[in-house]
Specification:
The chain is of the alpha/beta class. Strands 2-1-6-5-7 form a five-stranded parallel β-sheet, sandwiched between helices. It has two domains: 160 residues, SPOUT methyltransferase, trefoil knot domain (Alpha/beta knot), CATH 3.40.1280.10; 54 residues, Trp Operon Repressor, Chain A (Orthogonal Bundle), CATH 1.10.1270. It has seven helices and nine strands; from the N terminus they run E-H-E-E-E-H-E-H-E-H-E-H-H-E-E-H. Helix content is 34%, strand content 20%. Helix 3 links the parallel strand 5 and strand 6. The structure holds 6-[(3-hydroxybenzyl)amino]pyridine-3-carboxamide. The site of 6-[(3-hydroxybenzyl)amino]pyridine-3-carboxamide has 16 residues, from strand 5.
């Protein structure tokens, strides 16, 4: 069965090219993944097609109104759907979370805009709020693309076994080791001798050591 993902946003064209490249394109062509766009503006209930309003209590920016967002979600919701809201206030996205989300047959991704979405529709229609990192984007579309890429790598058939193994190593808590390929010398920089030795036990040891050192240096929080 194909994994279905519905993206609810104000900019459906934002997603035109990212899903037409590389692995995601192939997964979609193979029918492993189906990604559809829903324009929240199509569910505006006024003749000016307004979907945002000034916040109650004052302050800067605009807030997406609950009624059009609720209608947009409910237009695609079915038994087995899981609704995710992308926002800086969400639970941090990790590989483990991506693996978990890959189990749902249907994901509905709500992309926030402006200062956010009326809390009441989050309470009534959203299952969880996820953040791709501690920074604010102009809208949630880029965050949705990142989330889909993370999830897709856990959907069987989207990537090969080699890459799958690599993902496992990250989940087991270390950064990856450095990689080298031809030529053997580049502007006076040479490939570490051990990688040319053909000694696979030594190579594995070297890679493990490099991964550990790299992690200690840039991400000690992972250790
Ligand atoms: C809600 C997600 C949405 C509130 C969305 C801004 C960053 C992320 C938005 C809000 C986003 C993230 C839209 N920016 N870190 N922008 O996942 O203040």
């Amino acid at each position: 069965m194909t994994k279905r993902i519905d993206i609810l946003s104000l900019f459906p064209d934002y997603f035109k090219s990212p899903f037409e490249q590389s692995m995601l394109k192939q997964a979609i062509q193979k029918g492993i993944l189906t990604i559809r766009q829903v324009n929240i503006r199509d569910f505006a209930d006024n003749r000016h097609n307004r979907v945002d309003e000034r916040p109650y209590g004052g302050g800067p920016g605009m807030v997406l109104m609950a009624p059009p967002v609720a209608k947009a979600i409910r237009s695609v919701k079915a038994p087995g759907s899981h609704v995710v809201y992308l926002s800086p206030q969400g639970t941090p996205l990790t590989a483990a979370k991506g693996r978990e989300l890959a189990h749902y047959e249907h994901l509905i991704l709500l992309c926030g805009h402006y200062e956010g979405v009326d809390q009441r529709v989050l309470d009534s229609d959203v299952n969880e709020e996820i953040s791709i990192g501690d920074y604010v984007l102009t809208n949630g579309c880029a965050a949705a693309i990142v989330l889909i890429d993370v999830v897709a790598r856990f959907v069987p058939g989207v990537i090969g076994h080699d890459e799958a193994a690599n993902e496992d190593s990250f989940e087991h808590g270390l950064l990856d080791c450095p990689h080298y390929t031809r030529p053997e010398e580049f502007e006076g920089r040479i490939v570490p001798q051990v990688l040319l030795s053909g000694d696979h036990r030594k190579i594995a040891e070297w890679r493990a050591q490099e991964a550990l050192e790299k992690t200690r240096k840039v991400r000690p929080d992972l250790l």
